[in-house]
Amino acid sequence: MWINPEDVLLASALWITERANPYFILQKRKGHGDGGGGLAGLLVGTMDVVLDSSARVAPYRILYQTPDSLVYWIIAHGTSRKEITEHWEWLEHNLLQTLSIFENENDITTFVKGKVQGIIAEYNKNQEFKEDDDTDKFKEAIAKFRKLFGMPEEEKLVNYYSCSYWKGKVPRQGWLYLSINHVCFYSYLLGKEAKLVVRWADITQLDKSATLLLPEVIRVSTRARHHLFSVFLNINETFQLAEQLANIAMRQLLDNKGFEQDRSLPKLKRKSPQKVSALKRDLDARAKSERYRALFRLPKDEKLDGHTDCTLWTPFNKRHILGQMFVSTNYICFNGKEETVCSLIIPLREVTIVEKADSSNVLPSPLSISTKNRMTFLFANLKDRDFLVQRISDFLQQTTSKIYLEREPTGSLTSSDDEVTSQLGSLLSCSPPRSSLGSDGERQFNLNDSSVPTATQALMTMYRRRSPEEFNPKLAKEFLKEQAWKNHLTEYGQGVCMYRTEKTKDLVLQGIPENMRGELWLLFSGAINEMVTHPGYYEDLVEKSMGQYNLATEEIERDLHRSLPEHPAFQNEMGIAALRRVLTAYAFRNPNIGYCQAMNIVTSVLLLYAKEEEAFWLLVALCERMLPDYYNTRVVGALVDQGVFEELAREYVPQLYDCMQDLGVISTISLSWFLTLFLSVMPFESAVVVVDCFFYEGIKVIFQLALSVLHANIHQLLGCKDDGEAMTVLGRYLDSVTNKDSTLPPIPHLHSLLTDNGEPHPEVDIFKLVRSSYEKFGSIRADVIEQMRFKQRLRVIQTIEDTTKRNVVRTIVTETPFGIDELEELFVLFKTEHLTSCYWGGGTNLSERHDPSLPYLEQYRINVEQFRGLFVLLFPWANEAHSDPLAARFFRLLDHNGDALINFREFISGLSVLCYGDLTDKLKILYKMHVLPDVSTDEPDSAFEATQYFFEDITPETSMGKWQDYSFCTSDYRHYLKIWNQDSKSNPESTKNLPKLNQGQFIELCKTLYSMFSEDLAEQELYHATATVTSLLLEMGEVGKMFCCPGPRSQDHEDRDRDREGCPPPDRPTADCSARSQEPSKTKQTAPLQDVRLEEDQSSPKEAGTLSSAAAMLTSDDETKDDTSVSSYSVLSAGSHELDDNKLQCEDIADDTVLVRSHGSLPHSTSIDKDWAITFEQFLASVLTEHALVQYFEKPVDMLARITNAKNMRKVGRTSLSFSDYEISLSA
Question: Any idea where the EF-hand domain is (predicted)?
Fold first, then answer.
């Protein structure tokens, strides 16, 4: 390609001149091509790889030089000799003679540069060139990546790093390429080349470790082997990016969420010297946004715009606190440098004024932000205050427009900004009943049953039972707690904008008052933000979801009465109905989760302390942000945290870990503890204290508390002999955890009823237990937990994938002659083909082809395009040149339900017949493929629909297009297959039940046979045998036609036939008959094998009568010379002879030939004899007469060899990534 001229001082260094003239030089890089360039070429090639030289991608170049100058200019480079030669010839023909006119060398140089730049500009204009963010250096890396590993354009490179790969004890210096779906490595050292390609989806472990010899190593593990990479310039950046890409791959395996690049990122400066790609910046921005959302409990779609160091004035202690300000689309947040010192969240919907205050030595670059609840926040020491104010102003303008748009359809909910402010201000007013908010700002609705009242406030306020005494010590303590919280909110601020400090945490650990629990849960979890920004959402969801029935609603109904049945709030229809509405609404909102057991227990507790809508948004925060993937169909999140808990137990209670692992207790207890947040294993009044801490601190509280429980029972657990005894010890301990400050009446705990009648455990105070967990295990950090979660997520999801594979193989192994090892390898190939299409398949809907909720055998499904790839690699009848039509036919036969997708069972059923079936089964498959309606060719009459076996009356329809458009023609054969399947289930299929093959279908069958043999070793012998069989079958069809179509019939027979087909008498127009003959007759009863009556074409009756002896055959030129057994059906190669009127017609379709004998030159549309047909018995008997054909179809198939070949095969346009990773290939 032409490039902007760049000066070169040493033209001959490391380059070989191949052509030259007075002004231009064409050069090739040393070490490139067949010659290699000897030792110098090997050294240059090695240096190019190690130093990431662009010459590795473009080994040819053209230099410009004036005769008297020592400076050269590179004006073009090329990846191939053909490309560079085209440029060279253009220069010779268009530029060389013109340059001789100039007298001044400077003028020549200016002219050449201008000409080249003009060519580049014109090319960019014609190609609709779009300027992107990637630097020229990174574009070179993309070109290298695609060239080295055969990747298509859809595979996006994220970044590449210099490193060493360890193969055995020998390090190979090269480059590690990290793309969206693969990790690749390339090295070239003194003629030896090393390549590695691993899919992220196949990685089972990714960690950063240190050894005695190698201080920093990244280890990438798959099911097959481990790969070690070292000597990184920035190992932390590389590892973080690898983690992020592996996470994306796991997410795709888990819920089909592919990667979509964010195009809204700001443009990179053109002069930037960095090689950072737009994708890398996108992933970096995503990682920062994820940490930002997790830190401040913000909605999942919030994106961080930027952050800066600053100070915040805190009025409660009269200090300036050093920290960072974070600005995003809808929030301004602050976090102190020291943990728990102070954090702040300011929603932009609450902001009224943002102004720059006067700077001073004491308070440089201050910024004041005022909110609707009359709080003012003062930030200072801002480095770029003007830019920051402009960004906040832009976001504020967007927020104002959003509020205006939302108020239009829901004006009854929020009539004014003041009302919104008053609602938020009253959120923490601490008044026992919140009926004012419910009556003024919320619609009353009753969607379950007109006779059932709807809960408009927390169920606990409606069913609270006070003790007979008006005042007792517990109530006094509760009153003091309320006063402490009110004082704190007065001093530190109310609502979302409150200052969150260490004192706030201490108050939470002391217990939240009963009256304020639901409101503070909303605040600390961040659910209040989503609820306020989605007014009316819950009510609309309830209206849409109620009355809908599916698997989730059935499970919800089954578990409704198992949710806190001991609590009076759920012993009547009001509490049950509220629980039903919340669970059903969430299942409708998030069908990927739907409903999972344990959600009912958690939701019932939320309803006790919050109104329905608040409980719904708390459930959203719980399932989608605070406990990610906990409640999906495979409880992946809980299994991940179970693995994290095992790691923490090994680190913090090592003396107990081995014992617990031997007993298998950790895996048993952790699921019930984590899924229900201890609500199912602790007394209710104690467990809600755990929930208080969880909403404030997150999952680390659950880990701390679980470790404390194990630590408190360490001696008893070490003495346990089995898991039952250990579970009893832990059950007694948790049953004894009490909340002495609770004002609630004792609620019987069902878990305690399941334990034995042994001596009860001494009471344990819940507040002391929580304090102890913070003292002993409070050092656990949230970022460390996330690191552990990543490691465990890889393990858990790959374990689930392995379990799926084993279950599939176990289910299908009795149905097929394949062995277990073969089935496992075939399943990996099948799944890989599905995943590859997900990577590079464009805009296909992934959820249609992968649904984890389906049975194991049906989870992964492939379409016809993917099947074609596997057909070429695995099926014995495939060959590269003619596989497409046969693959399409085979796919349609396997697609039993006609949804244009096949699952693994259907795939294996077809492959089993071709590999291990007997001769009759194989020929039956081949025969069936051609009975179905054809979609494999553009010729309108090359094939006809199935015979009377499927429908009572069928009229032919033209083909709908090539097999690639198969998904649009599914309905053509869907009904045929359904009827065929139903019939075959009730009656075992026999050869006599198969429908007849008409002449059009027979022609396609012959074409298929010839295409199957085109690359066989015994090709000529098979062609001769096929010609003999074809001749025999043609004669059989002619003889059979005599019995099906006897001579002239009486007028009575004609009238009877006319009546049966619904045609008018002869005196009526025939057009009416033609139109009506296309409709299936509902009353005609005919034999299953009767020929289908076909609508006459536009040809004359005389021409149609000449078609009684039409035939079709295919062969090669060599066969024509040798074969004398079928001389009456002369076969000619396509286009090699001209036909006389009495010879065969030649129809050229692709590379094959279809020849039809006739008595005259007829149009192609009338070349099919509609009365001609053969049966499967005739086809089978004819094939058995030829030993070459019998030997071909009975030839044994080495399936393991085909599988191995499929793993290593490189397909056209891309690498066949059909297994976890390639062996390192070394070539001299």
Answer: 882-917
Residue (of 284, 307, 303, 272) closest to 236 by Cα position: 284
Task: Please tell me what DSSP assigns to residue 708.
Answer: H
SS3 content of the chain, % helix, strand, coil (to 5): 50, 15, 35
Q: How many residues does the chain have?
A: 1228
Q: How far apart are CA 971 and CA 568, in angstroms?
A: 56
pLDDT tens figures, 568-605: 888 888 899 999 999 999 999 998 888 998 899 999 99
Write down the pTM of the prediction: 0.74
C-alpha dihedral, 538 to 539 to 540 to 545, nearest 10°: 80
- In whole angstroms, what is the distance from residue 1026 CA to residue 1020 CA? 10
CB 977 within 8 A of CB 931: no
Whole-Å CA distances, 961 to 423, 999, 1078, 1150? 63, 20, 21, 15
Q: Which helix (H) or strand (E) holds 904?
A: helix 904-916
359-370: pLDDT as tens digits: 888 888 999 999
Task: Enumerate helices (H) and strands (E) in the chain, giving the number of each.
Answer: 46, 29
Give yes or no for a contact between 877 and 1202, defined as CB atoms under 8 angstroms apart.
no
Torsion over CA: 752, 755, 761, 764 (sign)? negative
305's enclosing H/E stretch is strand 304-314
Output DSSP code: residue 367: E
Secondary structure (3-state) at 511: coil
Instruction: Tell me which residue of 1042, 1190, 1037, 1043 sits closest to 1112, measured CA to CA.
Output: 1037
Give the up-direction half-sphere exposure of residue 430: CA atoms within 13 A in the CB hemisphere.
Answer: 15
Q: Which amino acid is at 944?
A: F
**Tokens found for residue 156:** 């996006």
pLDDT of amino acid 513: 92
Sole residue written with tokens 């719904």: 616
- Residue by residue, what is the 3-state secondary structure of 718-737? HCCCCHHHHHHHHHHHHHCE
Taking the C-alpha atoms of residue 36 and residue 42, their distance in angstroms, rounded to an integer, is: 7
Coil vs helix vs strand at 623: helix
Q: Compute the distance between CA of residue 147 and CA of residue 132 in angstroms, rounded to an integer.
A: 21
pLDDT of residue 101: 75
DSSP secondary structure of 763-788: PEEHHHHHHHHHHHHTT--HHHHHHH
Could you give the CA distance from residue 582 to residue 616 in angstroms, rounded to a whole number?
A: 6
Nearest-angstrom CA–CA distance, 744 and 13: 88
The two three-digit tokens of residue 1030, written as one number: 């074809």
Helix (H, G, I), strand (E, B) or coil at 1018: coil
Cα separation, 268 vs 381, whole angstroms:
27
Q: Are 874 and 1202 in contact (CB under 8 A)?
A: yes
pLDDT tens digits along 235-254: 899 999 999 999 999 888 88
Burial 693-710, CB ≥16 within 10 A → b, else e: bbbbbbbbbbbbbbbbbb
Q: How far apart are CA 880 and CA 870, in angstroms?
A: 12
Encode pLDDT of 989-1031 as tens digits. Answer: 556 678 888 888 888 888 888 888 877 788 888 889 989 998 9
Distances (CA, A) of 1210 to 873, 1215, 1222: 10, 5, 12
Distance CA 217, CA 214 (A): 6
1089, 1142 Cβ separation under 8 angstroms: no
Q: Residue 847: its pLDDT value, please?
A: 53
Q: How far apart are CA 122 and CA 129, in angstroms?
A: 10
DSSP 813: G
Token reading at 498 = 């409150």
The answer to whether residue 465 scores a pLDDT higher than 70 is: no
Contacts of 762 (CB under 8 A, 6+ apart): 736
Q: Residue 239: how many CA atoms within 13 Å on its side-chain side?
A: 22
Closest of 286, 283, 258, 130 to residue 840, by C-alpha? 258
Rounded Cα gap, residues 858 and 268, in angstroms? 45
Q: Residue 722 is which amino acid?
A: D
